[in-house]
Amino acid sequence: MRVLIFDTETTGLPKNYKAPLSQWPHIVQLSYLIYDLDKKYIVTIQDHIVKLPEGVTISEDSINIHGITNEKAESEGIDIKEALLRLSICLDDVQMIVAHNLSFDKNMVQAACLRADYVNILKTKPFIEYCTMRHAIDLCNIEIISKRTNKPVKKWPKLIELYDFLFKETPNHLHDSLIDILVCLRCFYKMTTGQDMVQTDSHYKEILYKHTL
């Protein structure tokens, strides 16, 4: 089986998560990789800065998080239609999609498809889905006080919290979607196989630590 791990960086967060997708923010970075679970190797890694439509800008808060400025998006970005086309080609080759907070990244891709007048490329076939965040809720068991009920609840772990729980390491440079997919892959593999890819795949280890140390 081949899995696609993907992540997006955006112009901001939705002001209303129940708002129509046409009102959602725009993608400024789209990264994904394909991993072959049977042959145990990375098939491809893709990382795209995305050029924004005229009149759309990145919020200062988001720039402070992921470091992609409006100038960088303009000078280095590719058209969102091209980015989606490349992603759709890779999706043809996989059976499972994986992300940390999968529903958010799925909505971001769907919103981009809607604006590009594309079909939703994540619904072209029945993908198996795995969200590392949701599968980590009981695993990490991090309690917070609910603002709504004022009672303890288990929080949705951040990717860095899950990674630290599983590996007792803190990766650098998160909120670069390329780094996030490399980190997410290691978490996914550990959660589903019980094995640490750093111990079993020297090529992956080299790529991971090149970007996160």
UniProtKB/TrEMBL annotation:
Keyword Nuclease set for record: yes
GO molecular function per UniProt: 3'-5' exonuclease activity; nucleic acid binding
Keywords: Exonuclease, Hydrolase, Nuclease
Record domain Exonuclease: where: 2-197
InterPro entries assigned: Ribonucl_H, RNaseH-like_sf, RNaseH_sf
Signal peptide: none
Protein name per UniProt: Exonuclease domain-containing protein
